[in-house]
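Entry
Fold in token form

___
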Amino acid sequence: MGHDLNEVNGKVAMMYNKQGGAPWHTLGTALDGPATAEEAIVTAGLDWTIDLVPLQTTEGAGIDFAKAVKRSDTGDIFDIVGVDWRPIQNHQAFGFLDAVAGEGKVRYETAGALGRGERVWMLARLEGLIRVGRTDDTVNKYLLFSNTHKANFSAKAFFTPIRVVCQNTLTAALGRAAIDKGITIRHTGQIESKVNEAQRVLGLAVRYYDDLGPVINRLAAHRPGVKQVESYFKAMYPDPVDPVASPRAAKNAEEKRGMLHQLFEGGLGQDMPGIKGSTWALYNAVTEAVDYRRGSPRGRSEVGASKHLESMWFGTGQAIKAKAWECALDIAGVSLDAVGAGAN
């Protein structure tokens, strides 16, 4: 199976709100609108639990220091874990997001599972939006939760802004590492108490979106010069140390910078009055390149689509966007020291 999405009895374990289009391909079950937690769990095929199964040797002797992580409906064994490991059930994950956002204030845009179901994710939209200055450019507020039913992995929840006009997933740190990097929940100890603590911390972190608006407005108000644009794109895709010895790498970097120039001038939403030619547009040239041009599903159908999703949310794609954000702040002269009291 080329897409690596979990599939049971011919049904792909994913749901999405078709009003916003398929997240990265058309597999899974489409709903006419965003889903409640109960609808998302059932529609995405996540209405199963994790059981911890005792182990024994081939001779039948019991093993008291480890257990098997077993999926209840298919019987798949995901991993072998120590006795202190505790599952975070799928229904707990959805309940976590419901509690963070407030009852009735969150709807799920997409949810699903990868592999045999060992990695589960859900993307929930919060109320309200960020409007960039007085323009028509807006950013929706999302929470992303990812959980892996395996040893040595943790559940994680963090904020994921998405630009409406182009559906670019933004990576925008505001200088508070404990919040910007999300909340991690380890599979040990009393899981319920850890979820409650994470809810408390994330509840305080709603100011993240209050702080993000002024910072974005500073980027939209700044107009970089030609040399700044060149320097910015070169920071994203630099030339090799020895271009003569690596002509292919040099050409590749040049082509990628050329793509960024095209997206800066003609990408989705880049021609809006108040946005065109700004450092905000500069940053979004990179986010569009990562989300839709860098090995994206537009160019490769289903093949590698789920790996692309993982990259843009958790991997190298996310890292590129994080670097682009930091460089954009630097070009616009935006200091995050004043975040919380309004960007300077």
Notes: The chain has two domains: 7-49+89-205, 214-338. The longest strand covers residues 119-131.
